[in-house]
Amino acid sequence: MQPIQPCQKPYDQLHIYYLEGQVQAQDDYFGEHFIGNWEEGGYTFLFFSHPVHQVVERLVADEPQLTLLDQFQMSYDDWHGGPVAPFSVGCIQVVPPWFDGGFDPEGSLETGFNGSAENNQIFLDPGVVFGTGTHPTTHACMEALDLVNRLDVPEVVLDIGTGTGLLAIAAVKMGSQRVLALDLNRLAVKTTRRNVLLNGMEEQVLAVQGDADNVIDFPCDLVISNIHYDVMKRINQSRGFLSCGFFILSGLLRSQALKIEQMLESYPIEIIKKWGAGGVWRTYLGYAA
Predict the structure, then answer these.
(1) Counting C-beta atoms within 10 Å of the first and last residue's C-beta, which end of the chain has fewer, N or C?
(2) Are the C-beta atoms of residues 43 and 84 closer than 8 Å to each other?
(3) What phi and psi, each to the nearest 5 degrees, are found at residue 17?
(4) Domain range enclosing 138
(5) Are residues 55 and 174 in the same domain?
(6) Is 112 inside any structural domain?
(7) Which residues make Cβ contacts (< 8 Å) with residue 213, sequence separation at least 6?
(8) Using one digit for the tens of pLDDT, what is the confidence trace for 5-60?
(9) pTM of the predicted structure, to 2 decimals
(10) CB count, 10 Å around CB of 109?
(11) Same domain, 180 and 273
């Protein structure tokens, strides 16, 4: 299937309703302006492209377990901390699907990937999911992916905490044949599936909602784990992690990274490279022998 054609910028203003409790209603309950809901830790954020006060009031009346705590309005760019714009990391160019104009970033790293300008471009629509690709840990993961592919292209990849699906899609761009992209959050999975379609990778990338503990034994050649420390600590102790081959661990603050590193020292593992962004974030590329 051909990739979806580039589109217009999806939203101008976001209308966000913050509730305590988990919503039971299905998406069609909310009407045409509904974007999605983000659930975490017993709280829910409902996103709309237009104000829908009556819809939310009806929801709270229909579902007594819910309490409306607050509501916000902000621009799409403000939600993401700035304009969602093209950027490059190493060999990969990441472009919003609504971007109209030439993009030829300077200063790209020399890499082992020799794709054409067309083949190394990724369309990324983050929707309202955090993760436009510009965070230092994402950059480090992309560089680690490139380094893995210099050493030995991983045929099968497990991407835990996929978010917008950027790393899963980048893995395919660099030569991987199959990627299982996992996230616990339903909206993240929905966003990843959208980006998989945008890049015509339905045959290579499967995005699923689930718990990392339930998939770490999935047979693969590379595990990418850009997730919370508590989850990473658990999966790093599993038999599946120790048989995965290459691994990329990221999303770690300095104090958390030291604990993970101490844990890894007790395993038959080689740390190939470390990244430290601004003295705060840590990323590791390694191999489980």
Answers:
(1) N
(2) no
(3) -115, 125
(4) 130-288
(5) no
(6) no
(7) 231, 234, 235, 238
(8) 445 667 889 999 999 999 999 999 999 999 999 998 899 999 999 999 999 999 99
(9) 0.88
(10) 12
(11) yes
